User: Fold these one by one.
Assistant:
Number 1:
Amino acid sequence: MSIDQAGQAVPAVPAEAAAPLAPLAPPLRTLGDADAAVCADGFCEVPPAAATTGADE
Amino acid sequence: MKVEIWSDVVCPWCYIGKRRLEHALGEFEHADEVTIAWRSFQLNPDTPPGTAVPTAAYLAERFGPQAGQMTGRVAELARGEGLDFDFDAALTVNTLDAHRLLHLAADLGVGDAAKERLLRAHFTEGADLSDHETLVRLAGQAGVDTDRAREVLAGSEYAGAVQADIELARAFGATGVPFFVIDRKYGISGAQPAETFLQALRTAYADETQN
């Protein structure tokens, strides 16, 4: 498990792709596993890591 | 320390992630210095307002047979966190009004209670979170004045705050939820194990106190 991925900022919205009125957001330092379970576009995948870490906690 | 959490009330990993963060805070030595701010995110923004579609059917139509496998696995993992998910009863809705109500609840100091109540209503009780009277009832149970809740739902109050949350999530690079930000310095994506949340909290706290 990687807890600290120092130096790997969360990918910010590229300047050229950002909407003109998009809010300014500072770059973030990412913590935790990069492949943790998320829901996106209405679908919630179960990554292999989650399948082995959640049920037996 | 301030932990901002982007999530949707129909997002199963958000509910699981909430529980895991709570477990981590239960172990965190400086939990009394942590404030939680719930931020809005809509997984299904194109769902027509005022309609409720059975989630199982909605997912099956969009994603085919793998949708059933997904919900089964998520429900199994939720049980490991003490959560009882009933995807057969769940209803997919446009959650804009639910988020507007959550902003009201936050302003009244009961944001976390309201968030928990709406999540449980959706995942365990099969509540229709697009129905205004249902939302008023649930908000009231969380400590929100029901007259004020009706007033907000009757108009468009807090719609701008919901949209601002969503735009800020995108600006931070979030592509899914749950998405956690600590002190606008650290980003944590997804329903991490409780131990990972705990380590992240300790890392952020140590960094903050050293600088």
Number 2:
Amino acid sequence: MGYTGRTRERVTKPGVRRAENIARFLIGAGGIGTIVAVSLIFFFLVWVVVPIFGGADIEEAGRTEYPGRAETSPVIKTGMDEHRLFTWALRKNGDLRVFRLDTGEQIVQRDVFENAEPTCWTFPPVTKTLEGSKQEAVFGFADGSLKAAEFKIQTKWLFEDDPPEEVKDLKIGERAQYQQGMVQVTPLGQYRYEYLEVAFKDVEDDEDDSSEVVLVDFSRQSEQDTYIGVLRKSGALAIYAAEETENAFTGKITISLSKYDLPAELDEARGDPKFLKMLGTGTGVFLVWPDGFTQRYDARYMDFEVKRADWDAGVKDEWTEYEARFPEGRDVVVVEIRPRLAETFDLVRDAEGQITSALFLNGKTTLLVGDTTGDVRAWFPAKPKAKPGTIDGIITVNAHSFEGSGTPVASLSVSQRTRMAAAGFANGDVKVFQVTNREVLAAATNQSGDAVTAIAISPKENGLLALTPNGAYQWNLELGHPESNVSSLFGKVWYEGLESSAHVWQSTGGTDDFEPKMGLMPLVFGTIKATLYSIIIAAPLAFLAAIFTTEFLDPKLRSPIKSTIEMMASLPSVVLGFLAALVLAPFVKTVLPATLAAVFLVPVTLIVGARLWQMLPTRLSIRWSRTPRFVAILLTFPLGLLLAIGVGGLMERIFFSVDGEPDIMAWLNGAGPASGGWQFLLLPMSALIVGFSLVRFAGPWQREISVQWSRKQCALFDMGKVLFWLAASFGLAMLLGELFAGMGLDARGAVGPDGQREGGLVGSYIPRNAMIVGFVMGFAVVPIIYTLAEDALSSVPIALKEGSLGAGATPWQTATRIVIPTAMSGLFGALMVGLGRAVGETMIVLMAAGNTAIMDWNVFNGFRTLSANIATELPEAPKDETHYRVLFLAALVLFAMTFVINTMAEVVRRIFRRRFAEL
Amino acid sequence: MLMKQGQPKGVLRRRSSLFARGEPMVWLTGGSLTLCLLMIVGLLVLVFARGCSTFVVAPITQIETKDGKVYLGEITREDTFEPGPEVLEALEKEQGKAAVDKIKANEGQVTRRLMRTGNFEYSGEHFHWVTDFDIAKESTPEWAVVVERHAREEASGRFYGEPVAFRIDGEVVAEGNEAAWKKFLELHPEILERREERLGIEENELGDIRDRRGEGRLELRRVELDHGKDSEQYRQQQARQTEINKKIDEDKLAIDEKIRKLIEENERYQIDFEITQRDQPVSLYLTDIVRAYPANQLTSGEKREVYLSRWGEFLLDEPREANQEGGVYPAIFGTVIMTLIMCILVVPFGVLAALYLREYAKQGTLVSIVRIAVNNLAGVPSIVFGVFGLGFFCYIVGANIDELFYAEKLPNPTFGKGGIMWASFTLALLTLPVVIVATEEALAAVPNSMREGSYACGASKWQTIQRIVLPRAMPGVITGMILAVARGAGEVAPLMLVGAVKLAPELPVDGTFPFIHGERSFMHLGFHIFDVGFQSPNAEAAKPMVFTTTLLLIFIVVSLNLVGIWVRGRLRKQFVGT
């Protein structure tokens, strides 16, 4: 740098300099900060969502020697407390021991059966009560008696001010043995005392059956409603309704039974069954033999009434297997459902396998069985749509299988919270399964290689305990969010009670042991359905309106009309949703045929109007080509609507007659012939086909012959053409409709196995449906597309237009061949932005879409979108639980969908801009 | 004009083929525009008509049906339906063939009317459908009175009846329609005043008592957290607290006494009504009556008065009857305050970001990517912002604030839940792209020559921005702000997640320190529409109110937009002028 001239004479004032620096800093920091904050949204969503996909971790937590491990009597149940302080193990001989989990030191030893050894026992899934949870149990004995028990882990808070000697010196988090259990100091400094309480209840059987109890099961359906299932040596199978009574003086609880016999069909040759399992719903009982042969009994004992007329009309056929009574003097039929054998099947894959353990998952619906081949399989009853041939229409399906390695399953255990289970194998392996997702979450082995005789998952699912003759092994589990993974979120999952895998969203249920079903596909489908139907309505409307505004409208009217439509964009969507749901939906339901007719008749009226307009003398038609023409269109439009209202009834009669009576609702529900619907649906299409063929094939001919014609003659010819077009379209639609119906197709979908039509484009009418949403959301999207499209069209350089018009092209030719192609990318961008808005719209779908998460293209059915789902469920979802994170994932999916669409729009817009720069 | 060359015969007359004019297509495009205009006009007309007619004084009709029952009430709407064959059969049995023939002559259609009959505690319904063929007699009784009242136990909703007696302390002091009514008109205003006075006391003085109690409790807990329960400070504080509580109890007794007196005085006055659901007249406490008028004998001036008074109540009072009656003042207030806070947040940050992007950042690929991202963000669904607001502001930022400053209130969250501040923050984020884009465009529109001129005169960059660029870009900034406000005011979905509630007990801004309570939940007009329209137990009664609220919301949003357009126009003109 050399000397360039005069030196600087003036100095920048320090104040200015300071202001400059401050401004630079503030704007830099503020600007960058704002942009970072905005991008934070995306990263935050990802940050919340990512843990869903994290795998499970299992970590060895050591081995302890535990008391009584050398005993030969097998452990029949083990469990632990919520905080993994102690565990308890009950052996068949009645030896119950409670010991510390960390050291193995014994806390309690008891003989609970007083020298009588039970022949069978049952430990149903843990039930949750108001005070906490309890493990219930029933034992059967050789003398035919039964005993019920409750293993409850009780929690008490010791006085902070004056703690007992044994625990006084404990620091936060430390634990010590105290009386019958353990004390731990909580982070708040409280002394939490936990201990196992075992309470036995006598069971009194009126009949006093002394035949040996071979198998027993227990099912609690509610606080009062409990059932005990019993199989005796005599071959008698019975279910007892159990009623608890408390002795007012002693406080002892006695259970008295009332019996329902089940007609057991036992085969001597098979020997005794090994397991008796009653479904939690009380509707079924499984008897499982060691080789896997299984009988399912329909355990329902009930009567129900059917109207005589309905019975004769067809209900009869559904209940041929059951007894029916015809009470005198009443116009009903009573169907008697009595317990009976419903089906038999085999639980084991090949002949050699022997069942080693069987128990219900939480919820008492899915039966989990382990066998000697090492397989763990899950079975549950499902009601298929097609009649399966069993008397109650239910079959038991093997929904999930975890193939084994050949080592027998030695023990199984289930989680108290979710559909998770753990298996211990004969070679010392342990595995943790998420059954619904068919996922093996964790696997480990104990070093000794001893068979796992008993296994337990901790109540909080954070620990696993395996008892072997050699010692107790512990693992720490960190499962993350086992209920959801990529395949369960986006793929089909076989949920309880379904006949096959399906996409289902049902995140919460009425009960604690509800199986959450979190498949996002129905919601994604709903979002796409809403977007599609609304864009089908909005895009043509907005584009055509924009073309008219820029090309044919009086320039003076353009600005007020444009701002009126822009005002539409500022209408809050909650207003549109409210009007859609409470005004439009009930209204359209009453005038459905007219509404459908309007879709076709309004354009036809306009076309006829246009042909009539052509008949005007040339001079007038030129003078009136601006505002008067628009006024004429404005007036013709309501005419079309009036026509539709008038014709609606007629149209219903022609197309949607059921047994000769016009009844569109019944038709949509599946009655009446298929042809009418096809004809109606194909009408617009055949009109397009005929119209296009006329232009394509008759056009050149018309041009040729009409060279010498006067304008009037041409117009008359065109009028005739319209009539021909209408007649031909009708004819073609009729023909095609009959053809399609003749081919066995139906717009309402094919008849499913259960006799209901499904999967059609139209179907049963729900007042809050996709058509209503499409219309109203279209209303919300129209102004956006319109504004952008209008901008794109009007920014086509005027020179291009003038050139075209100057060369003799008509305004219409100029519009279609010059203006629209030039503005194409702008129009595409407008469409994309409209799509983006429709994808994320919340209030309209929340209010007007019925919110049922079903996958169904039916225009007249409801749906549930991602956005509406988030709005309804997120306020109730507890922070950081799986449900909460899945809803965040839904938000992320929405974000991604709109991001892709908007980026496409932006890129196209940039191309568009460059192109104009060139022009 | 399409002519083949060398066509031998005829005179060539230049005229464009009709075919090329595409008249039908032009009409279709015009039809689309017509439909768009029809929709918007139809919507506005519908909302305007229904919204304005909510408060109109309707005549009271008395209908006697053929089974001897009498219904008194307002007719709210009418529709036609097609009775099934069973209904017709039953009708023929009861009323003979003529009635059925009449229906058949009308193509099987029957008209029925929905009457608002009120008197819920006696009839178990608010509305009743009356079918035309059931009507025996119809009249408009002169002394039928509409009563809007506050809920008291079972009694809620509208009340319709004829006044027959007025009682003070249970003694009849006036008998007969006119006398009782005159007495009512004479005494009702002062009773209302007393009621207002009582409510004022309850809100202010009892509120104070509550606040003092709460503060004491929190102070004690704070001391406990700081020093532990065993400490000397805790014991001292406890003693102090007992002292204070004693004083509070005394004050409360005095206030209770005052309130009791007011209530007692008010409950002396009762008016008896004859109603159609019961043979005996029933009495209403005057203090429960919000407004009553004999609808059938009002002059048009009086009708207008009732109409305006209802509008006044709507705009200035709190809701009652589960939001179905009364006003929406808290919702208007909540909407305005939330939008204001949002505006204060969004405008500076939006302008800063735009300034940075346009004036300071080095133009290149990075900046255009950022620009695309910001543009994109404008298209991100509002519910996603709501999700972010709940997860980040409420559950993370809010929960941390609670732990630091409001530990004594835990586990009850203070900022760790939805509130007006978080709602404003969320909406500010939502509207930020709008402001950035608008400001950027405005900045870009300032000609470079002006900047260069400024630099050439020796101005620094900031001086140039401050004095040349920003003022020129002001219309754009204001436009952006107005657009943001209009969007923010109408947005509901994210608010459902971050703090809008159906009924907020306290306004987010009030007279107690620190005056602006950012942690409080608030009511919002848009959410109010959703809530009353969809989650109200008595949907039929709620619907008119929803229309009125909708009208109000549209009015606010549209006028904000219009103001924006107007301001933009003015500023533009100003700059053109200079």
